[in-house]
Specification:
about 250 residues; about 45% helix
Length: about 250
Amino acid sequence: MSAMDLQLNPGLEGKNALVTGGSRGIGRAIVERLAASGMDVTLTYVSNDEAANAVIDANQGLKITAVKVDVRDSEASRQCVEVMAERVGTIDVLVNNAGIIRDNLLPMLEDEDLEAVFETNIEGVFNFCRAVVPYMMSKRSGRIINISSVSGEKGGRGQTNYAASKGAINAFTKSLAVELGRRKILVNAVAPGVIETELSEAVRDIAGEEITSQIVLKRYGLPSEIANAVWFLSSDLASYITGQVLSVDGGFKM
Ligand code: NDP
């Protein structure tokens, strides 16, 4: 492929992507970015039908399919992947984006706050990777991009459960990259800083000044700025990158 070809077509057109938690926030931006590049994109969500339908309605003409499936449910996740593979043939890109927060100081954390966060943020990643990887292995190609967080590497008050789940994603990403490298499957993570979505609303309301003063670029990020990084890691432009955690945080972690 010539340099000009790569610039015009970074290898995504006609390929298929699966984005968990793709109905709102960062996931929605990723879905729209990949679909606008000519990919057939399946998004998952867990409860908000209205938000999922809104993504489809706002993007008539792009190939987007919404499936309601809880990433915590391994059997349902496997079935979702099977149905997608039957429909589109194969899965080229998996973006594990679905995630939640249940912030609180450690003594106040209930069992449910631990279970919900670990089951969604890390077990969900296991569930979808286990379901998708066999398809990628048989094709000897694929990209897996896990959405981590700056919290996986930078301490944050009230975030022990969330930080632990995101640190686990970083470690998982590196091991899976080693495991799948021989099969030409590239595995990376993107670690967003504070991004303007519903998930971060409470944190931004409570500690806005304190946070933005620590961000080198002095502002929050936009979902589209995370989507751009995922798009790059999905494309042929990132063919020699694996096992990395790419910070997209305006310099917050430094
Ligand atoms: P939002 O709350 O805006 O959106 C979350 C999405 O995940 C929704 O589509 C939601 O579906 C879906 N979801 C939640 N739980 C499940 C589940 N059990 N099964 C399937 N889908 C589920 O979150 P963000 O866009 O802000 O966050 C996306 C990712 O980015 C998360 O992994 C988060 O940890 C990470 N991140 C976010 C940051 C931020 O500042 N916003 C910073 C760093 C990382 P439904 O609409 O049905 O609820």
